[in-house]
Amino acid sequence: MTLAQEQTVTLHRPRKPVATTATLAPAAQRWSVEAIEALFALPFPELLFKAQNIHREHFNPTQVEFATLLSVKTGGCPEDCGYCPQSASFDTGVTATKMMELNEVLFAAQRAKDAGATRFCMGAAWRTPKDRDVEKVAELVSAVKGLGLETCATLGMLNEGHAETLRDAGLDYYNHNLDTSPDFYGDIITTRDYQDRLDTLARVRNAGVKVCSGGIVGMGESHRQRAGLIAELANLSPYPESVPINNLVRVEGTPLADQAPLDPFEFVRTIAVARITMPKARVRLSAGRQQMGDAIQALCFLAGANSIFYGDKLLTTGNPDTQADLDLLNRLGMSRGAPEA
Ligand code: SAM
Ligand code: DTB
Ligand code: SF4
To answer: Is the overall model pTM greater than 0.85, yes or no?
Structure first.
C-alpha cells in the first residue's frame, strides 16, 4: 500500500453515526468511493487485519447471529429485478402463492427458534404492499415477536404509515436493499429507481424501526460500482444496523443466469470493507453460502461477518442445512449468539 492510499483511508475513517438524525440523506459524506476503492485495493492480509481489528473493537469475533427467512408470499412479483426468481417477468419455475396463514407462519417461526434462530425474517414478493397486506403482516409480526424472536420483514417499498403500523406490531428490523451502486442500478432493475429505495429506508428510519439494508455482488458490476454500493450504505446517516451482503445466486430463467461467478476473494473483500465502513452493524453473510464452500465462509467470518441466514431455504433457493452450519461453527470453535455492538 502506498502512503497516499494509507492517508486516504485514514482521512475517511467514519465518525460515530449520529443516532438522533431522522433522515437517511447522505448529507455528511463520511466515505468517498475512492477511499472505499482504496480499501478494496489493499493486500488481502492488510484488509483482513484492518477489518478484524475493527470487528473486535465492537463484537465478540467468535459469535454469529442466526436469522431464519420465510417467504410468506412467494412469486408473481411485478418488478423486474434481473437477479430475482420471483419476478413475474421471468420464467423461473417459481409458482406464485397467496400469503401464508398465521398458524403456518407461527409453526415455521417456532421451528426456527427450536433450531436456534434468534431472528425471523418474513419476505413477500411485492412491489409495494397494500394497506391490508401491511395489517396482515403486522399480525404475523406480533405473533412471531410473542415467541421471543427478533422480527424482520421485507415487503418492498413502503407507503406513508406502513412502517409505523409494523413498528407498533413489534417489528425490530425492516429489510430493503440498495442492491448495487446508483450507476449500475438501471442495468438490473427498470421498474423502480434508486430514490424509491432511499425513500423507503427513510420511512423505516423515521418510524424508529431498525434498518436492514445491503446488496448483491457478482452481478457484473465493476470494482468501482462495488465500492459505490458500500459507499451508499456507509454514508446513510446513520448507517444500517444490519447489512446483508448477498453473492448472486444465479437462477435459470433470470437475465443474470449466465453471469460469470465473482472471484470468491472479492466477496470476502466486500465483507471486510462493509465491516470497516460500518463498524457496529451486523454484517450478514447472506445468499450464496451454499455455492461458496466452508473455507470461503470461514474467511468471511474472519473478515467481520457476524450473521448468517440459517435454515435449509432462503426465500426460493437453497441454503446450507442447519446441521452443516452447526458443524461448521463447531469446527471453527465459534458459536451462535446475537451480537450487540
Ligand atoms: N420484494 C422485496 C424487495 O425487493 O425488497 C423483498 C424480497 S427481495 C427477494 C429481497 C432481496 O433479496 C433483494 O433485494 C435482493 O437483494 C435479494 N435477492 C433476491 N434474489 C437474489 C438472488 N438470486 N441472489 C442474491 N440475492 C437475491
Ligand atoms: C437479503 O438481503 N437476502 C435475503 C433477504 N434479504 C430477504 C433474500 C435472498 C434471496 C435469494 C434468492 C431466493 O432464495 O429467492
Ligand atoms: Fe420482486 Fe423483490 Fe424479487 Fe424485485 S427482488 S422481483 S421486488 S420479490
So the answer is: yes
